[in-house]
Amino acid sequence: MNxxxxxxxxxxxxxxxxxxxxxxxxxxxTGFVNTSSPDEVLPICKTGKAxxxxxxxxxxxxxxxxxxxxxxxxxxxxHSYASVNKNVAHLCGHDGHMAILAGLSQMIAAKRPExxxxxxxxxxxxxxxxxxxxxxxxxxxxxxxxxxIFALHNIPGAEKHRILLKTGSFAAAxxxxxxxxxxxxxxAAEPENGISPENAISMIIKNFHELWQKKQLFxxxxxLTIIHICMGEISFGTSPxxxxxxxxxRAFENDDMERLTREAEKIIxxxxxxxxxxxxxxxxxxxxxxxxxxxxxxxxARAAKEHNLKVEFLQKPFKWxxxxxxxxxxxxxxxxxxxxxxxxxxxxxxxxxxxxxIMDTGMKVFYKIYQEINFSDHE
Length: 379
Prior knowledge:
Blueprint: H1 3-14, H2 23-33, E1 40-44, E2 48-54, E3 57-67, H3 94-110, E4 115-123, H4 130-137, H5 139-144, E5 148-156, E6 163-165, E7 168-171, E8 173-182, E9 186-187, H6 198-212, E10 222-231, E11 238-239, E12 242-251, H7 254-274, E13 278-287, E14 290-292, H8 294-306, E15 311-313, H9 325-328, E16 332-341, H10 359-375
Parallel strand pairs: 3-4, 3-5, 5-16, 6-15
Antiparallel strand pairs: 1-2, 2-4, 6-16, 7-14, 8-12, 8-13, 9-11, 10-12
Helix pairs in contact: 1-3, 3-10, 6-7, 8-10
């Protein structure tokens, strides 16, 4: 394992930055990757960059993507490279993903492409969903006309170095729903003179629990998770006239997410009308399902097997979501899992730390993908 790559990962881990604030992170990556002499470096959105290596002959455009951002969580760690930035830490492994792509740049520099282009994309703001969405809408990105886009994500709980693959939906669609219920406040001694959302809240929760259990309505798993409820003011003399509910909607398939959303909105409309409440619905952190292209999955599987790595084809998608989904809607893509170890702390936990030893595995698989597409007759 290249000691420089480990040191880079530790440095990125020590100085994390949250979504859309990854300026120093990108500065560090730029300094490292520029030593491999890319032919072109293009800014993407506010903090992202694409490093482009061009072949002399026409051919396919192959892209690899890593994420720049850390999480707004306090790390619990005794490592010398523990985060020094208050309440910010790389607890999802993006520091490792970046280091893998940076290491890949050195491998490409040693054997530059014969044809087409290879692009290393460092993308901001994965954790808040709009990163990939903004990148896909960026004219600079669109001008690259990628034929293939590959990425990986470390998977705690899976055997170290194991490659996890799935054709079709690999990670779930999800969205955050905010419901505002507007009634009328009154004196707590005369609640009949107001319109309280109290009963509507309990009815919505009950109906939502019943909805996601109606398996006959959906092709695969759906889930509604109540994450936050607030109602009225802390005033014992006032009957509430306003409430907010926040719910996460989740589905393995995009079609199911569309139906789940329609059915949930229908429930809110009916109950609000019955209870004489006005309502507003808003959505944020909207992730489509990450849908892998079969040909790209096969390319990744061959790359893993070339290195005698264990390959597992998943029966079901992961329940978490990934903004890589926005690339999968328009391009031929594959997001695959890289096992981080059976006993590795779960993602977003305060004591999570990306395993250095799996970076070499990620680099080798990416490089083998690069070799197949750029140095074979694969069209």
